[in-house]
């Protein structure tokens, strides 16, 4: 038995794939690089993932889950819905910007998948809308927000703030002020009973 051999599982493959993407970038990284790093054959990786697309999707989904962990924490805050929604939307915009700065290769991988409308991205968008909807429902029960369709309002709020996860907005010197202005406008709109 070779004691130096690392047992292979999904988590090890995902960790190695992230390393490979960070080393070579999402455009140049491939499954061969992952297999070489793990000192295994392609076939060993295919036992866990059905090709590069499935592997890259799994890596992106895991990365999004880690990045969105702070958003889940905000849902648990003991705050009124308007404050909670402000925190959630502000963190949503800033987490993408931080990841683009501190983890540019993984952010580029995310953007690459976003342009091809992969299911992982669609799932992430729906999760974002659902987080907002939970807060809107809380706000309705608190008598703070007024809307007949919390889900549609959540979708509109998500779409209104989506511009701030676009890399083109990251260098805008007025970015933070713009984010807060849009969030405050959206919250005022939700508070309006008419």
Give a verbal description of the structure:
Residues 7-67 form the HTH tetR-type domain. Keywords: DNA-binding, Transcription, Transcription regulation. InterPro entries: Homeodomain-like_sf, HTH_TetR, Tet_transcr_reg_TetR-rel_C_sf, TetR_C_27. This is TetR family transcriptional regulator. Residues 30-49 bind DNA. By secondary structure, the protein is mainly α. The protein folds into two domains: 10-51, Homeodomain-like (Arc Repressor Mutant, subunit A, Orthogonal Bundle); 61-191, Tetracycline Repressor, domain 2, CATH 1.10.357. It has ten helices and no strands. The chain has helices spanning 10-24, 31-38, 42-46, 52-67, 69-75, 81-102, 104-115, 119-141, 150-161, 175-191. α1 (10-24) packs across α2 (31-38) and α4 (52-67) packs parallel to α8 (119-141). The protein is elongated. The model has no long low-confidence stretch (mean pLDDT 90).
């Amino acid at each position: 038995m070779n004691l130096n051999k690392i047992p292979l599982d999904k988590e090890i493959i995902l960790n190695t794939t992230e390393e490979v993407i960070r080393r070579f970038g999402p455009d140049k990284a491939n499954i061969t690089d992952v297999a070489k790093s793990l000192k295994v054959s392609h076939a060993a990786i295919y036992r866990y993932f059905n090709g590069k697309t499935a592997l890259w999707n799994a890596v992106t989904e895991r990365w999004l889950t880690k990045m969105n962990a702070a958003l889940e924490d905000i849902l648990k805050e003991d705050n009124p819905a308007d404050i909670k929604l402000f925190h959630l939307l502000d963190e949503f915009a800033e987490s993408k910007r931080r990841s683009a700065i501190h983890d540019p290769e993984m952010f580029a991988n995310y953007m690459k998948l976003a342009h091809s409308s992969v299911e992982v991205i669609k799932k992430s968008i729906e999760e974002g809308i659902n987080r907002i909807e939970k807060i809107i429902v809380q706000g309705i029960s608190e008598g703070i927000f007024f809307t007949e369709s919390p889900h549609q309002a959540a979708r509109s709020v998500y779409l209104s703030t989506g511009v701030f996860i676009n890399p083109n907005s990251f260098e805008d010197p007025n970015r933070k002020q713009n984010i807060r202005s849009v969030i405050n406008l959206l919250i005022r709109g939700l508070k309006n009973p008419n």
